[in-house]
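Tutorial, part two.
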Amino acid sequence: MSLAAQLPAVIGALPGVLHGALLGAAEPAFRGPTIDYHALAPEIILTATVVVLVLLDSIKLERAKAFMPVVTNLGLLAALIPLLTLAYDGGTRVLFGGSYVVGPMSLLLKAMFLVSAYVVVLLSTNYVAEGDYWESEYYTLLVCSVLGMVVMASTRDLIGIFVALELLSIPAYMLASWRKGDVRSNEAGMKYYLMGVFASAVLLYGMSLVYGLGGSTQLEEIGRAIADAPDKGVPVITLALLFVVVGFAFKVSAVPFHVWAPDTYEGAPTPVTAFLAVASKAAGFVALISLVFYAFLPRADIIQPLFFVLAVASMTVGNLAALRQTNVVRMLAYSGIAQAGFMLAPFVVAGENPFAAMQAVVIYLVIYAAMNLGAFAVIIAIARKTRSAELKDLAGIVHSMPGMAWCMVLFLASLIGIPPLGGWYAKFGVFKVLVGAETGLGWATAIIMAINTAIAAYYYLNVAKAMIFDDAPDGDTAPAPRTPPSLSAAVGIALVATFAFGVLPGLLTNVTAYGPLALGG
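Running the prediction step on this input gives:
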């Protein structure tokens, strides 16, 4: 039959074909995910805050400066509201097929990030306004970084972890070098950036190996695949876990990946240093918690010796280096490295009691955030008079600023671990989980940690001694300039939290003692 003869039949059949296609289209092959906007409300509010800050800066230009810290803090406080309502509702919300989980533990960590950022904004308000800084972009970058931290607290996926890591890190690189005319600040930002890029490359290579082993980007699927992996795959598993842990060891400034921290902390603006030392470091630990307890725990025989080396090296090298410092900010940088070692210690016994180890890490993170932010807040307040953070310039400051001097003594006592301040409970929790594991590595880590706690007490008490008992330089005991209300409020918030967590540790243990729910599962 010719083509001309077949054409009418083909045309006549078209309506039936089109009707069948339309019926097939009525049953879509793809169904979009159900989005729980209540669970995502903190992230949505922070994103909206970034948009408002950018628009305000673009429209008002120089006139926007006075409004930027106010808008930033309003956005941070607004993001806390859905956290409270989610905590009141209880339970765990699983989104995107298990890639994003909002549970008791993630809510606590998000609250820590938001409150820490709120305190950092209080520290920054006068510091940035009185210096030769760009103000508007500063707060926009700060909120962007906090958004990455909040996402990190809930993500259970390799891609989500890496995106959150870059979202919090890239603004931090720019904030570290915010003093454009200061060579040390430029050096701080450059070192932080170069080491961060290197660490990201190592981390990505490790993640690619982990994905190859697990066949999925979801952490729980990876954990099951690693648990079922045959013994002949051990070298690849070891390499994958090693590269991922090393990548995050940079973020938490663990030895030997700590070389960026002292110069970056000293050269960056002091509020940024407080932000990096507390919130940014905590985000790195949150990622380690998710990776270790969801994906890597089946191979505790690999990760526990690795964390033992990192923890012992960090607390020992950090404390020994801090002994020689004459600049208090630099001393706190090395102290932060040692504190990172204390926080890494529970990972050494993660295989024996995973939930207790996780609980000890999270409690230490929250308490460390309070007492370390308070110490940096006092340094900023004192530096308004001394124009320096050198230890010799802080001598006898109790005569000029008695309130701030005694607040600093309390924060230093908490960092040592003296009751009833919060630091004692943080260290007690770590010692308890190490000894309770009843393993050789656990006992060895506990003994080394006890020795390092005594070493740390020396340089902390040396600072307290200089402020209280030493004579002021040149006999200068004149009253200090009035401390701005925002700075006083930051010190007050940190001090109240430090006392509350020490006297009422149940505030934290009741939230973290959820077993599997505490891990968001």
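The radius of gyration is 26 Å. In part three we will examine how such features are distributed along the chain.
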